[in-house]
UniProtKB/TrEMBL annotation:
It is an enzyme of class 3 (hydrolase). Residues 57-186 form the Peptidase M16 N-terminal domain. It holds the Pfam family Peptidase_M16. This is Peptidase, M16 (Pitrilysin) family. Its EC number is 3.4.24.-. Keywords: Hydrolase, Signal. One of its GO terms (molecular function) is hydrolase activity. Residues 203-374 form the Peptidase M16 C-terminal domain. Coiled coil: none annotated. The lineage of its organism: Bacteria, Pseudomonadati, Myxococcota, Myxococcia, Myxococcales. The keyword Metal-binding does not apply. SUPFAM superfamilies: LuxS/MPP-like metallohydrolase (SSF63411). Belongs to the peptidase M16 family.
Length: 447
């Protein structure tokens, strides 16, 4: 739901030489149809007798919150989508799905929102009708809206006990000046407090973004394709809204190093984050693939930095760079949880040295190739159930916008060349493009 808590970071576009042909990356056959109203429907038969996963991806996230005072609405509206319709009032959908034994939930990111259900194929017809009904005909009264707004405020209060939320707020607010990525998916606190008064705006938010041409369905598991598509056309076909065209502000280039510090009032471990602006992710450029490899290359478990800081000197409890591509230019970040405050200069120096060595042209081609293989096979090893497959397909489609985004992204990863990592570091991982965040606890570390 939140950038740091889900992962961290971003994208890059670097020209490259002729690329080798990459193998087909996604191992299961997929069928895709686009309804006349623009809804994309992707089906993947998967050997899972009696089980099916059903994922709905709406390409709206906190990046779309451009009006002043209205941040956090993509996440808030995820909550409202469970409030019922005239045909199925609040609570009825959940009772019906529970009779079949479906697991049912949702989550929101910077760039998209996902609604997902996993359960018996015997309940698929009922699920299709229920989902189409709420996406077409959501209804809720203002008292219900106000109650849920207070629940979202409570969620913020719960999460603010975690240092990562404060860090994310301060990092994004420092690195971004114009783009909506400057606020977290939860939104600015004062906007969350004001949400109970925004009932009318919430209705316009639904009409603006919850449209068939802004939505993709992923159905994975045991089902009869013809029967499923007939039900989809029956129940989703009348859905006829069009997605709004709302300009997203462009972030101006950063021209000098920025720093921000967080003083944490209670005991925890010190933290360090280095973040650079990088280009938007796209399946037609190598940017996201380069960073997917680069994150492991710089601070993964086979990197010299990991060996130095985690294993040999034991200066940090953890180090990483959770790769999370974004639809718009965002951040590529390295982060470390330090064991003691006095280790901070040595940790930052080690991270900086690793980047400078790469930018100088020193790159281990064999390790690059090993990382590429590991990314591919790690993913394949985790595609063990329909829910796993649908979840991965939905995640990458939400970012990149195409039903086959996962396969295309993996193909791009296979094409990454060592010299592209060097070019990326030279171009983007430079001091004028850098934002540094430090978190120092009140006691200097865990008691």
């Amino acid at each position: 739901m939140r950038q740091f808590l889900l992962l961290l970071l971003l994208t890059a576009a670097v020209p490259s030489a002729a690329q080798p042909k990459a193998p087909e990356a996604f191992p299961y056959p997929a069928k895709t149809d686009r309804l006349p109203n623009g809804l994309s429907v992707v089906r993947v038969p998967f050997h899972s007798p009696g089980l099916v996963a059903y994922y709905t991806v709406v390409r709206v996230g906190s990046r779309n919150e451009v009006e002043p005072g209205k941040t956090g609405f993509a996440h808030f509206f995820e909550h409202m989508m469970f409030k019922g319709t005239k045909k199925h009032p609040e609570g009825e959908r959940e009772r019906l799905l529970a009779t079949y034994g479906f697991n049912d939930n949702a989550f929101t990111t910077d760039d998209f929102t996902v609604y997902h259900s996993y359960g018996p194929t015997a309940g698929l017809d009922a699920l299709i009708e229920l989902e189409a009904d709420r996406f077409r005909n959501l209804e809720y009264a203002e008292p219900s809206f106000r109650t849920e707004a207070l629940a979202v405020l409570g969620e913020y209060h719960k999460n603010e006990a975690n240092p990562w939320l404060r860090m994310e707020e301060r990092l994004l607010g420092t690195a971004f000046q114009q783009h909506p990525y400057r606020h977290t998916t939860l939104g600015f606190y004062e906007d969350i407090q004001a949400m109970p008064e925004a009932y009318a705006y919430s209705r316009s938010f639904f009409e603006r973004w919850y449209t068939p041409d802004n939505t993709l369905l992923f159905i994975v598991g045991d089902f009869q394709d013809g029967e499923v598509m007939a039900r989809i056309r029956e129940h989703y076909g009348p859905w006829n809204r069009k997605v709004a065209q709302v300009p997203i502000p462009t972030e101006p280039p950063q021209k000098e190093k920025r720093t921000v510090s967080v003083e944490w009032p209670s005991s925890t471990l010190p933290r360090q984050v280095l973040a650079w602006h990088t280009p938007a992710a796209s399946t037609t450029t190598p940017s996201a693939a380069i960073q997917s490899v680069l994150s492991d290359y710089l601070v993964g478990s086979t990197s010299p930095v990991y060996k130095e800081l985690v294993l040999d000197k034991q200066l940090v409890e953890s180090i990483g760079s959770g790769f999370y591509p974004h639809r718009d230019p965002s951040l590529f970040s390295l982060h470390a949880t330090l064991k003691a405050e006095e280790s901070r200069p040595a940790v930052e120096a080690a991270l900086t040295r690793a980047i400078q060595e790469l930018a100088s042209g020193k790159v281990d081609a064999a390790r690059v190739q090993a990382i590429q293989s590991n990314i591919r096979y790690s993913l394949l090893m985790h595609l063990e159930a329909p829910d796993d497959v649908a979840g991965q397909l939905a995640w990458y489609a939400g970012i990149f916008g195409s039903p086959d985004a996962l396969s295309r992204h993996l193909q791009n990863i296979a094409r990454v060349q060592p010299e592209q990592l060097v070019s990326f570091a030279k171009r983007y991982l430079v001091e004028s493009n850098l934002t540094v965040l430090t978190l120092t606890p009140a006691t200097g570390g865990k008691p």
